[in-house]
Specification:
Blueprint (H helix, E strand, L loop, with lengths): L9 H26 L9 H41 L4 E4 L3 E4 L4 E7 L5 E7 L5 E6 L5 E7 L12 E10 L9 E7 L2 E5 L2 E6 L2 E4 L3 E6 L1
Antiparallel strand pairs: 1-8, 1-12, 2-7, 3-6, 3-8, 4-5, 4-7, 9-10, 10-11
Helix pairs in contact: 1-2
């Protein structure tokens, strides 16, 4: 998809136009005064030089702002194209929530230092535990696939569920971990704050996407 560069904002364009007009008027006035100055009492050019420097500084600031607006526009276009490219793809996001659409859900947790024990608890949308499992305590990344069944063997209704990871080290203290969930990008929301991915668990910011798996 073609990326279109941002056009400078009307405020910057107007400011630069006004500055150019003021500078032209200032230079005309300076030329006239220098042409008609008293040779025996010449004008003090220090103030004129100072004003010229100020004009140049303000002009440079306005130009810098225009370039920044262009870069922001390019980044926004890149984010939009990146979001559109994820449509229909399976993604891993930084979240404890995953959608059970009837066949369960999947998470991935990473233990950078390993753990002595890991307990995994599935919570429903009311925050109630419906199933518990023993996780893999070894160091590294681990996939956890839930079959969508509650502790009593019944099928959990479709909905959004959360996974609680309780990892402890040999001293019983909490061991560090990171958690991701698996979902899919069904549409793209193009809002003022930037594009977001619509997923079965709700809108997801692009920054939350950690991996794109495929269709």
């Amino acid at each position: 998809m073609e990326i279109t560069a941002a056009i400078a904002s009307p405020r910057s364009t107007a400011a630069l136009s006004q500055l150019t007009g003021n500078l032209d008027s200032f230079l005309t006035l300076l030329t006239t005064q220098l042409r008609n100055q008293d040779p025996l009492n010449p004008l003090d050019t220090e103030k004129f030089t100072s004003q010229l420097v100020q004009f140049a500084s303000v002009e440079q600031s306005i130009e810098t702002n225009k370039h920044l607006e262009t870069l922001i526009g390019l980044q926004a276009a890149a984010d939009r194209d990146g979001a559109l490219a994820m449509l229909g793809k399976t993604i891993m996001i930084e979240s404890d929530k995953a959608a059970n659409l009837g066949a369960g859900a999947m998470w991935a947790y990473d233990l950078p230092n390993g753990a002595s024990s890991v307990r995994l608890t599935i919570l429903n949308d009311k925050g109630q535990p419906i199933a518990q499992f023993v996780g893999d305590p070894r160091q590294g990344a681990h996939d956890f696939v839930w079959d969508g069944k509650a502790a009593d063997g019944s099928a959990a209704p479709p909905g959004v569920y959360a996974l609680v990871v309780q990892a402890k080290d040999a001293n019983g203290a909490a061991a560090p971990f990171t958690l991701q969930s698996r979902t899919s990008a069904t549409s793209v929301i193009l809002g003022a704050s930037g594009p977001q991915l619509e997923t079965p668990i709700g809108p997801v910011a692009l920054s939350a996407v950690k991996r794109v798996i495929g269709g």
